[in-house]
Specification:
Layout (H helix, E strand, L loop, with lengths): L3 H11 L3 H8 L3 H8 L7 H10 L4 H5 L11 H12 L2 H19 L14
Amino acid sequence: MKIGRNIQHFLEREGLSQNDLARRAHISQSGLSSIINDQVSPKIDTVEDIAAALNCDFVDLLQVPGPAASEFTPQERDIIRDFRALNHQGKEYVLQSLAMAVQLYISRESVPVSNVEATN
């Protein structure tokens, strides 16, 4: 999951340098740089620490630029609600599963993700 662009956006909004953010989030500057450059995927607790240091919700850092929340389908809103209800371990599992699904299915591009219906 690529969050580097979102972190960069909030860095600029807050007027912080990467060094400032690294210090506030209690991570190394090189580790933060790797996250911003999408070289590594951070753990959820690291995303939460970065979000707190940037005065934003961690979900803001994970969002892909796209439709406004009002444009989400009911199913997408349910997924976000359910994700927020999970404990730390559950969130970590979902994020890892999502990252694997993106690698497997997005690159195929045979069926747009927005056209995929959930099946039981």
